[in-house]
Design goal:
The protein is an alpha/beta fold. Helices cover 36% and strands 18% of the residues. 42% of the residues are buried.
Length: 391
């Protein structure tokens, strides 16, 4: 069984950026000053840096609200996070672990990547890492785009229990987050470290509300580089960076579910014959997962949506036992995709892209298929569950 769970943002990256280089490259701490200089003339790099520091401000405010000490900004942790974003983008992989001898490799785990960015020896001991991708890069000015990336990413990690616990970890002292805008996606990595003899707060932290013990509204915008690029500059160059914000989509859950199901048949299982029993079994399991906390091919009997414990048992029940004689018993395969996103960020194209990554695999040699897509809207949150069966 193949399954995927992805938390998504907006597919809305369009427009022209003022960039000097085709792609970002990994680096160690000796290149920090150079990277900051590049940000002054490269719109993408500038937005990424602004978003990182805006996120740092949001994080410290959140930690303080929850009784935790603020964390200090650390350029080496920022660079470590940036390097990992470059690797994830190059390989299209959301992961905490890199593969050796691959392009842009800087270390298998966070500790090794931190040592790489430190120039060989990690300055402190890393204590936590979060990673994500979303589609949050849109707005009319650089400042708006950066703020939206920071806020969307903060919300994404906050809404995930494990990532949220990491952001509020009591052992963290240093922090560096980075974002990478690549085509239609934004990659993000958030890295924390311990320190026993901590360095003095940087100029960045001195300008943030928590470090100054003042309210966020009392503090001007975050400084982006040591040269302190101001928001006026971002506004002045907006003609090079304007990204159109899509209008919110009104969602009819029933119609959208039916439309996605039909799109899945034509776009994923186009060459296979539709099978009613497989379709019914897929629908029953999609409804079960829509109301379940855990993504699994196995159903629990104590659920009100229980239909059959395993994929085979569900198909046997849906076929009245006739599936036993179909010859597909040994080759039956089930794929699951669970997608969660804000309702304002929904598009059928985006949902289909993510469904294809899971449901479209391992269909070679199959003759029959059944698929069902079910959706649930709760306030401004949308959950989409797609289940495909084929043999």
């Amino acid at each position: 069984m193949k399954r995927v769970m992805i938390i998504l943002g907006m597919v809305a990256l369009a427009g022209t950026f003022n960039t000097q280089k085709a792609g970002a490259q990994i680096a160690d701490k000796t290149a920090v000053a150079k990277l900051l200089r590049e940000s002054e003339s490269d719109s993408l790099r500038r937005i990424e840096r602004m978003a990182a520091l805006e996120f740092h401000k949001l994080l410290n405010a959140y930690r303080t609200e929850n009784g935790q000490q603020p964390v200090q900004w650390n350029e080496t942790l920022w660079l470590t996070s940036r390097n990992h974003n470059i690797w994830m983008d190059a390989h299209g992989t959301l992961s905490h672990h890199q593969k050796e001898k691959t392009k842009h490799f800087s270390g298998v785990g966070p500790g090794e990547r931190y040592a790489y960015a430190s120039g060989g020896n990690a300055e402190q001991s890393w204590s936590g890492e979060n990673a994500l991708y979303n589609y949050s890069a849109y707005g009319k000015t650089e400042a708006q785009i950066a703020k939206h990336i920071a806020e969307a990413s903060f919300k994404q990690w906050k809404n995930s229990p494990g990532h949220n616990a990491n952001m509020l970890g009591s052992g963290h002292k240093l922090h560096g987050t980075a974002f990478l805008i690549a085509k239609d996606r934004v990659w993000g990595t958030d890295l924390f470290a311990r320190c026993y003899t901590c360095p003095e707060p940087s100029e960045i932290d001195k300008n943030l509300p928590i470090a100054r013990n003042t309210k966020p509204d009392d503090v001007p915008g975050v400084n982006v580089f040591k040269s302190q690029v101001q928001e006026q500059k971002a506004t002045a160059s907006a003609k090079n960076t304007e990204i159109k914000t899509p209008k919110p989509v009104k969602i009819n859950v029933q119609k959208s579910s039916m439309s996605l199901t039909q799109s899945a048949y034509s776009g994923i299982y186009g060459g296979l014959k539709r099978n009613k029993a497989l379709e019914t079994a897929a629908e029953k399991h999609a409804l079960y997962l829509l109301n379940a906390k855990k993504v699994s091919s196995v159903q629990q009997k104590n659920s009100g949506y229980f239909y059959g414990e395993t994929p085979l048992k569900r198909v046997m029940k849906a076929s009245g036992g006739l599936f036993f004689f179909s010859g597909g018993k040994k080759n039956l395969k089930e794929s699951i995709a669970v997608i969660e996103l804000d309702t304002e960020n929904y598009s059928e194209q985006l949902a289909m892209q993510e469904m294809k990554k899971s449901l479209g695999e391992q269909t070679d040699g199959a003759k029959m298929a059944g698929v069902s897509v079910q959706m649930r809207k709760k306030k401004n949150q949308l959950k989409i569950v797609a289940v495909g069966l084929h043999f």
